[in-house]
Amino acid sequence: MNSKYIYLIFTRTGTWLSKTIHAIDRAKYVHTSISFDYNFTKMYSFGRTNPNNPFSGGFVEENILDGVYKRYPFSKCLVYRISVTENQYNALLDEVEKFTKEREKYKYNLLGLFAVMFNKPFKRRYHYFCSQFVSELLIKGNIYSSNKPPELIKTNDLFLINNAEVFFEGLICQYGKFNAVYQLSDGLTTEPIGLNTKEALNSI
Question: Tens digits of per-residue pLDDT, 158-171?
């Protein structure tokens, strides 16, 4: 069965929430999104539903060229590429589609986000923070396993996911040029452009 790829995008922008999480946790990257292609015009996560309103949160479809990322183009990001089976890929798409169709009922788990910083699980129905959402998808898809429940999984826990390659690490504003070069190669390169996983982890 042919392999397909999913992408995890780790970022830390200049929003007050990102700065607050970093101040508490000291992680290099504090936000996690998932994408099904390397253009990153459709990334899925939980965050601001309105880029200009820090108090509006829920299930979001992000675009690395727009929204919060357009406001903070010099923020750094790290992208993991993960090989999955076609069945796993399609199952993840189906799960995301469920969230997309019912996006109005999902809210941002702000209380859970701060509880996890102190290793205290706080699960609320229809409420997620970014790494909780992404890890739950990956666990359901048998792509990631953890002895922690999703409501206790932080972004930096996902740095250690198995079978991940570092696809890109750099400034958000540099990704467009990188992507153009990658597409010129028709995506045929067998090695991701950037640091390897060990080097990336040492830099975090």
Answer: 998 988 999 999 99
- Domain coordinates of the chain in residue numbers? 3-203
In this structure, whether the domain defined by 3-203 belongs to CATH 3.90.1720.10 is answered with yes
Of the candidates 77, 74, 71, the residue with the CA atom closest to the CA atom of residue 38: 77
Q: Which residue has the tokens 């995506």?
A: 187
> And the tokens for 82?
């993960």
The Cα 139–Cα 80 span in angstroms is 16
Burial 158-191 (b: 16+ CB within 10 A, else e): bbebeebbbbbbbebbebeebeeebeeeeeeeee
Q: Which residues of the chain have pLDDT under 50?
A: 188-204
- Give the helix/strand (H/E) hosting 71: helix 67-71
pTM higher than the cut 0.85: yes
Give CA 22 to chain center in angstroms.
16
